[in-house]
Amino acid sequence: MTFTISAYFGSDGYEMPVETEAGVSNFIAHLLAEAKKDADNNLAALYINERPKNERGLPDHEIRVGINPKLSAAALGFTDVDGSFYAQGKRDGDADVPYFSEGHDESFPPDSVVTVELIRKAIMEMLTTGKRATDVNWKSVY
User: Fold this and answer.
1) Whole domain around residue 13: which residue ranges?
2) How many domains is the chain partitioned into structurally?
3) Which residues contact 89 (CB under 8 A, 6 or more apart)?
């Protein structure tokens, strides 16, 4: 089975379908363009459409993708019933790495800087499996 993803980002709540490898590249390019245009909108929320909903009808998970072009940084997070995780990457000093969604600070830990290529591969795996990517070094937020 193939899964589909809906990505939301930007000050206007832009929704983008992500269904193919070209769609993943298109999403990343759009998020980067948004981040360059507006530093208060450099983080996107993604949802796998075919996953279950909770008792309130909301997705049972959330994927966060951030791109901070000023710091040449990118980040990946995943939350579901098992907890909140981020892709552990290289360390960027001792301070959290700033990402924003509609101006709200949603910073990631200092060791969360990953490559855009890792994000691309992780999203492709999630499109195939509908689950959190396995080829990522996930670390609990807590």
Assistant:
1) 5-140
2) 1
3) 75, 111, 112, 113, 114, 115, 118, 137
